[in-house]
Amino acid sequence: MTTSYSRILAYPGAAAFSAAGLVARFPVSMTGIxxxxxxxxxxxxxxxxxxxxxxxxxxxxxxxxxLARLVDAYGQSxxxxxxxxxxxxxxxxxxxxxxxxxxxxxxxALAVLAGALAGSMGSLVRARWTGILRTPQETHTAFSLEAAxxxxxxxxxxxxxxxxxxxxxxxxxxxxxxxxxxxxxGGSWFLxxxxxxxxxxxxxxxxxxxxxxxxxxxxxxxxxxxxIAVFLLSGAMFxxxxxxxxxxxTEQGHASASGVILAAWGxxxxxxxxxxxxxxxxxxxxxxxxLGVVALAVGSSTFALAPNLVVLxxxxxxxxxxxAPTVVNGNNIIQVTVAASQLTEGLAWVSTALNxxxxxxxxxxGSVIDAAGSRGGYLVxxxxxxxxxxxAVAGTRVLRGARTRSTLEGQ
Length: 411
What we know:
The chain crosses the membrane at residues 48-67, 79-98, 104-125, 223-249, 255-277, 289-306, 312-334, 346-366, 378-399. Keywords: Membrane, Transmembrane, Transmembrane helix. By secondary structure, the chain is mostly helical. The chain has helices at 2-9, 14-43, 46-74, 76-99, 104-116, 121-132, 136-166, 174-191, 222-251, 258-277, 285-300, 309-320, 323-337, 343-401. Helix 9 packs antiparallel against helix 13 (323-337) and helix 11 (285-300) packs antiparallel against helix 12.
């Protein structure tokens, strides 16, 4: 296993930009929980906290593809350095406004600013890997590594943010301030590494495909639409799980254990990511994507039957092993489908679909949990997971006939 990862990390600059990208991605996993804890503490309302958090998530989802398109056109450092600083200013403003008990509308506006300019650091890192690697198998390994590092942030980030926000000697806004420091520090470190930065491709809409024809939005590719649909519904499954896990732990009398349950979900995904990227796979990407969402659906269908927290945690670890390979396969399909001059934009749509799905799934599951408890939330989760399977099945023909390079049909 280690040989595959050592090989790609030996490329000049690879280890440095991957490490910097890891640091810069931590705010993604910290901002949401920091927002809920800080706003609820200051305003005494979960509704207010949910509103500010939702505004931030929607802004991230809508802003990331637009920033990614500008990155493809003008370059990572030129676009993202001012964007990172603007997003950090939004987080700093949130901390100050919350401390001053400003009107809720001010917090919403600052949350939108922080989210709209945050961008998708994961897509920037993956675009760099694509630019320096030589073979599809190396790209598969690199994307698996980044999926594993994503899980590291989601295992550590929420725990760190919660500890900072609830520490008696620190202000409740400390989670935001830590995210701000990681965003500026990690982002500046990453963007300062110009040697591995992909070349800019000129103004959006003016670049050309390898065949010479001008290309337009990545959303004109059927394969991209299929991946977005699958990840939108998969994100809804993740969002429903977040809310249902908290509800189930509370019903069991151990509300503080909800973080441990969700960490188990991440541990399974992290382990699978490292194992999946260490070897080559002969099946077509479309088949692997379908198998991944089926595994997620089967596993999530068992959660409503869990009698206690221990059993649920075990089920979380087992089912979580399907997450990272599914994300890797979706990113790989995007990578072999869109033009090189639109790669960052295409990859950003994956995180956008997931973020929107998480918001919708959490909202739907929350309303069902209020009426039927955590079991109802897990039924919502299972329904979203099987809807993702249906989307993958319906899109199989599109993926088979899509304009791709060799890796979509098999590696």
